[in-house]
Amino acid sequence: MKSRHKSHPGKTGQKRGQGRIGEDTVQYTIRNVPGKVDEALRRKAAELGISLNEVLLLALRKDVGLSGGEAAIHHDLDDFIGSWQEDPEFDAIIAEQDRVDEEKWK
User: Listing from the earlier edge strand, what are the strands of the sheet with 6-7?
Assistant: First the structure.
């Protein structure tokens, strides 16, 4: 019988597989989890209606800064910071768009 997971090269005891969206994944075994931590994780899983595994993955992602639940920090517009230039003509055009024509709203 063939295993669907291949050993991770150079990593003893870790297994490699495929995640839900085709991403490469690794399996871990976690030992010595304190009872109160176990209770809190299971309670959170029940509250969110997800598996214990999903709660653990969310916690791991959040702890290493890869949380999907929070807004991602992007740096693709950083070059524009501090580059704003006042443009009275543009401001006038925008102000005109904000004007309400009372005749059209009767």
Answer: 6-7, 15-18, 24-27
Q: Which residues are bridge partners to 16 per DSSP?
A: 6, 26
Give per-residue pLDDT as tens, 67-95. 655 555 677 888 888 898 999 999 999 99
pTM of the model: 0.45
Q: In this structure, what token pair is assigned to residue 83?
A: 């580059």
Q: Which amino acid is at 74?
A: H
* pLDDT over 50 at 41, yes or no: yes
Q: Could you state, in order of their start, the residue ranges of all structural domains in the chain? A: 32-68
Q: Are strands 6-7 and 15-18 parallel, antiparallel or unpaired?
A: antiparallel
**Confidence (pLDDT) at 4:** 46
* Residues 76-100 as b or e (16 or more Cβ within 10 Å = b): eeeeeeeeeeeeeeeeeeeeeeeee
Token couple for 53:
């595994």
